[in-house]
Design goal:
The chain is 8% helix and 37% strand. The chain is built from two helices and eleven strands. The strands form three sheets. It has a six-stranded antiparallel beta sheet. Strands 7-6-9 form a three-stranded antiparallel beta sheet, with no helix packed on it.
Length: 144
């Protein structure tokens, strides 16, 4: 029984791993991602860490992340708006140096109305580079 349990567990890395900068890709919701630590890059089983950009004058589609929490640190840009809640009823301003937490399952939209790209360091408890995004087009027209 012990051998069967051990065989079903993922093999964990026995040394530290360095991840060099990766190519960026457009996420389904419209932001630009550059994965660092991910299942694909280092075999992470519980964590994704990377950079997320929202270009100047752009916004994401309304969406939620069903299975994971997201933590962000705004590292560059002027400010963005984050709209969140069941009907996107809450609007907050995020500035460089601010941390942002998005609970699992919470609908949200990020809007960058400035002339500068917004940059974030992001982490989530889903190790996949292509995260569990659920688009919510029925909410897209709520955010101007």
């Amino acid at each position: 029984m012990k051998n069967e349990a051990m065989q079903s567990r993922p093999i964990r890395a026995s040394t530290a791993k360095i991840v060099r900068a990766s190519d960026s890709y457009a996420a389904e919701q419209g932001s630009i991602y550059r994965s660092g630590v991910a299942a694909e890059s280092v075999g992470s089983t519980m964590l994704w860490l990377g950079m997320i950009s929202l270009p100047a004058g752009r916004r994401t589609s309304a969406h939620r992340h069903e299975g994971h929490e997201t933590a962000l640190l705004m590292t560059a840009g002027k400010e963005i708006e984050i709209w969140s809640g069941t009907r996107l009823e809450r609007r907050d301003q995020v500035h460089p140096g601010d941390y942002l937490f998005i609970p699992a399952g919470v609908p949200h939209v990020a809007v960058n109305r400035s002339s500068e790209n917004a940059e974030f360091l992001g982490a989530r408890n889903d190790p996949a580079a292509n995260e569990s995004v659920v688009l919510m087009p029925e909410l897209d027209d709520i955010v101007p």
